[in-house]
Amino acid sequence: MKEASSMPDQPGPELPSPARISSRRHLLQAMLAGWGVILLAPALYILERYLVPAEEPDRQNERIDAGRFDLLPGPSEPPKLYRSKGKAIYICRNGQNQVQAISGICTHLGCLVEYNREHKNFRCNCHGSEFDQNGNNLSGPALRPLQPYRAEVIHDEVFLSPGAQL
Amino acid sequence: MKNFLERLIDSALIRNFFDALSHKNIPATRKTFWYFFGGLTLFFCVIQGISGGLLLIYYSPTPQTAHESIQSILTTVPYGWLIRSIHVWSAHLLITSLFIHFGAGFFMSAYRTPRESVWISGILLLFLILGFAFTGSLLPWDARAYFATQIGTEIPRSFPVLGPFVVRLLRGTSLIGAESLKRLFALHVTILPVISILLILFHLIVNHKHGPSIADTADGRNAKQIPFFPEFLLRDCIAWLTGLGILLVLALNLPPLVGAKADPFVSAPAGIKPEWYFFPLYITLRMLPGAIMGLNTETLINILVAALGFAFLLTPFISHSSADRGGISFPKIAGAGILLYLLGTTIIGWILY
């Protein structure tokens, strides 16, 4: 033991045997480790609660009011982009009381696709995926068509909900 | 063949690190007790780093959102109140422990050759930590924080020559506002931490190299020597556990509130006063008349505080080390006088105002 050897000539109380010191040290080390565990467990729990963000209400199936039917662009015009609460939807009129609505969110990695007036299709500038006017994937890394929206026209007001047109 | 973990440990020089620590000895004298406050200060610095990083996730530093984000941390974020309470209380304990560490070092003449660089880095860290306290106090953007910052950034104005420039540098605009909040925020969460971490590393490395100052004295040479690792470090662990216990009792039982949102057009609330560690300055400002012998009092106080700071920085060079081998010397008497003044004004600030 270092403590004992460094003061050889000082008379003092008789030192406990090395075996006793060792077992006492083990007990103290175990107690310290126990303390660590006791403190760490609640700390990790609190950290988890603090860091994990609160659940958000599911807006996936919410019905969206997209404005008046007669203000939407016609079938030959570029579609209008409706944006709200994490949704971006390209909308245009498609004949008498008919609306075409498809999501503008690329099915590859979530960028917003751009409408190309010349080719009358959708193109994602992030990785080059292309979709036709109806949202079907044509080329590039996107493997699924753009999400279609079901449109209902009620009293000249357009309402959208996720799903294919009936 | 060594396994993966052992190779990694050897490559990172971890064994060498602990080897070096186990060869360093700390003399166990009656004064060794005061050594725990250095480790304790470091411990609270670590707590501040962790809790501050966590608060940073939800805090938003604009006049429109700062107060609201603190409110939301207190009311809607799970355990947000606890994280903030720990950050605030740990700041108090950090400063307490730091003052004790500073005082112990001073009165035990820890600045003697060859420890000049340990001492100077320590004094700079003391100022930096007070800078943390000051810059952090504006962040909740409540009335008290607002006026504390108004006053705190106004005081340097009367400093000769540099004053107005320093005020402009701190505030970003002529009045406290969005720009000031961003500046103090950047200081609090990036600039001060980076400088402090580098200085703390320096402080620890040079201190390790030179060893404790008691070792140079007859007392230290005759005392029982404890290896730093693991014996002294385990004693440090006990100090840290005690500090953590005190911190948790305070943080759990007395979570600090946040005042009404800062409004530059509402007068300062009655009973407003700074944090206790600024009481000496605050009481001095309150007690003295506006001018002393034709000189502006603020200017005098600025010069006095700067002179005091320099005196502490230069203590190793001012004091004669032969006079410090024990017994009474000029720095000790001056230091005792300053200590009495600091304690006295702190108590006055607590009781009278």
Runs of chain A in which pLDDT lies below 50 for 5 or more consecutive residues are 1-7
Strand order of the largest sheet of chain B: 1-2
- The CATH topology of the largest domain in chain A corresponds to Rieske Iron-sulfur Protein
**Beta-strand percentage range of chain B:** under 5%
* Main structural class of chain B: mainly alpha
Using the 3D structure, state the CATH architecture of the largest domain in chain A: 3-layer Sandwich
Biggest protein-protein interface? A-B, 14 and 18 residues
Question: What do the pLDDT scores of chain B average to?
Answer: 90
Helical content of chain A, roughly?
10-25%
Shape call of chain B: globular
**CATH level 1 name of the largest domain in chain A:** Mainly Beta
Terminal Cα separation of chain B, in Å?
70 Å
Instruction: Give the percentage of residues in beta strands of chain A.
Output: 25-35%
Distance between the termini of chain A: 86 Å
Strand tally of chain B is 4
Task: Tell how many strands the DSSP assignment of chain A holds.
Answer: 10
Sequence of secondary-structure elements of chain A: HHEEEEEEEEEE
The percent of residues in helical segments of chain B reads 55-70%
Count of runs of 4 or more consecutive helical residues of chain A: 2
Largest beta-sheet characterization of chain A: 6 strands, antiparallel
